[in-house]
C-alpha cells in the first residue's frame, strides 16, 4: 500500500483547492508552494487558527504602544509612556491611555512560575488553554524547522511596533518568524534590516538592540526563546 501524499487533504484533494486561489501570481504560491517538512498548508492552518483579537490573560489588556501619528490626528499629547487625550473624564480628570491608535496585541505560551504563589512550582500559561490549537501549530512549527533549538516560551505578537530595546530576561538566542498579510516591518538589529516574513531568523535579543521598521497590514510574529525563571 502506497504512503498517502502529505500534501493532500483527508478527502484526497490537494489543499491548494480548499484554501485559496492557486493562480501562479497569487501570494499563496509565493509563500506556500511546495511540500517540505513545514509547507504551505501548515502555514495556512496556523493562520486559520489566529484569533481576530487576543484575549486578556491578566487584569490589564494584552496591548501596548502609542501611535504618534494617530495621537497627533486627534490632537492629543504624549508625555513619556502616557498619552493624554482631548477632553476630561466624567470626574473632571485628564483622559489618559497607555496605548492609543495602532493597538499591539501579545500573548505568551509555554511554562511559567507564579510570582505570588511560588509554592505552586512550574505551571502552564493561560494562553496554552485559551488557544490550544494555535499552541500546537507553533510547537509543530518549531519541531519541523528547528528541532534541536531549546526554548520554554513562545510569544505571539500582533502588529507590534517596538522601539529600540533589548530582551533583558531572555537567555541566549531567540528565533523569530513573521507571517500574515503585511508589507514592510523588517526586524532591524543594530542598524541592519532583516526581512522575516515567512523567514526564520536566529538572533540574541538580550545582547543586541533591535526594533521593528514601519509596516502596513496585519503583521504577526512568533518568537521562540528561553526565559529566566
Could you name the key traits of this structure?
229 residues; 33% strand; disordered N terminus; alpha+beta; 6 helices; single chain; 3-stranded antiparallel β-sheet; 3 domains; globular; Double-stranded beta-helix; 8-stranded mixed β-sheet
* Helix/strand/pairing category: alpha+beta
Q: What coarse outline follows from CA principal-axis ratios?
A: globular
Largest sheet: 8 strands, mixed
The span between the termini is 49 Å
Along the chain, the helix and strand elements come as: HHHEHEEEEEEHHEEEEEEEEE
SS element count, helices: 6
Give the second-level CATH assignment, the architecture of the largest domain: 4-Layer Sandwich
* Radius of gyration, taken over Cα atoms and rounded to an integer in Å: 20 Å
| CATH fold category name of the largest domain | Double-stranded beta-helix
Q: pLDDT below 50 for ≥5 consecutive residues: which ranges? A: 1-36, 59-64
Give me the count of strands.
16
Strand content: 25-35%
What is the CATH top level name of the largest domain? Answer: Alpha Beta
Amino acid at each position: 500500500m502506497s504512503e498517502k501524499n502529505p500534501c493532500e487533504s483527508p478527502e484526497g484533494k490537494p489543499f491548494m483547492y480548499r484554501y485559496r486561489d492557486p493562480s501562479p501570481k497569487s501570494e499563496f504560491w509565493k509563500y506556500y508552494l511546495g511540500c517540505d517538512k513545514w509547507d504551505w498548508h501548515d502555514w495556512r492552518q496556523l493562520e486559520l487558527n489566529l484569533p481576530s483579537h487576543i484575549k486578556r490573560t491578566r487584569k490589564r489588556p494584552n496591548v501596548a504602544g502609542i501611535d504618534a501619528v494617530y495621537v497627533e490626528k486627534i490632537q492629543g499629547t504624549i508625555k513619556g509612556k502616557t498619552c493624554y487625550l482631548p477632553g476630561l473624564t466624567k470626574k473632571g480628570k485628564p483622559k489618559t491611555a497607555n496605548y492609543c491608535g495602532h493597538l499591539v496585541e501579545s500573548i505568551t505560551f509555554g511554562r511559567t512560575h507564579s510570582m505570588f504563589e511560588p509554592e505552586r512550582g512550574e505551571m502552564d500559561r493561560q494562553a496554552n488553554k485559551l488557544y490550544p490549537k494555535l499552541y500546537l501549530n507553533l510547537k509543530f512549527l518549531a519541531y519541523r524547522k528547528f528541532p534541536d533549538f531549546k526554548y520554554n516560551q513562545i510569544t505571539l505578537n500582533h502588529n507590534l511596533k517596538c522601539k529600540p530595546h533589548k530582551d533583558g530576561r531572555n537567555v541566549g538566542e531567540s528565533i523569530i518568524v513573521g507571517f500574515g498579510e503585511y508589507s514592510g516591518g523588517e526586524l532591524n538589529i543594530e542598524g541592519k534590516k532583516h526581512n522575516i516574513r515567512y523567514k526564520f531568523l536566529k538572533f540574541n535579543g538580550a545582547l543586541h538592540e533591535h526594533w521593528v521598521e514601519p509596516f502596513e497590514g496585519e503583521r504577526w510574529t512568533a518568537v521562540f526563546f528561553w526565559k529566566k525563571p
